[in-house]
Fold this protein.
Amino acid sequence: MEGAMQCAAHPSVETELACGRCGKPICPRCLVQTPVGARCRECARVRRLPTYHISATFLLRGLGAALVAGAVLGLLWRLLFPFGFGFFFGFFVALGLGYAVGESVSLATNRKRGPPLQVIAAAGVVVAYFVRNLLSGEGVIPTDDLFGYVVVGVGVAVAIGRLR
């Protein structure tokens, strides 16, 4: 193999690829496909999408929205369903709870997305559960509320999915 070179980032990997801009040898793992050809990571200038670039201000706005939405939804959960609900209807409550918290975080952060906001939205769903439990006098985390745990789990999954 006459044209084989060693990858600049992975010296143990032989390659015949080179960056189209600077000529640095690159392997398929280092390659970044751009509209003008294969480039190394430095020449491709890989940046995160603005949707996933989350500043501290947006994190605080998302946290505030999650806490407020969680508190309000926990209050509504307690007022509208003081004696619980059936499995089928509870599933829809969980879907609505997760969607509402996820959407409030999304709106507060100008439609930003990403793992930090997913964690914040999940925390908002848990806050709704805690508020509901405190208002019903059961304590923060009752031991015999298996269905409540299921509702929170589904709500968290929906809130996270809303911010992927």
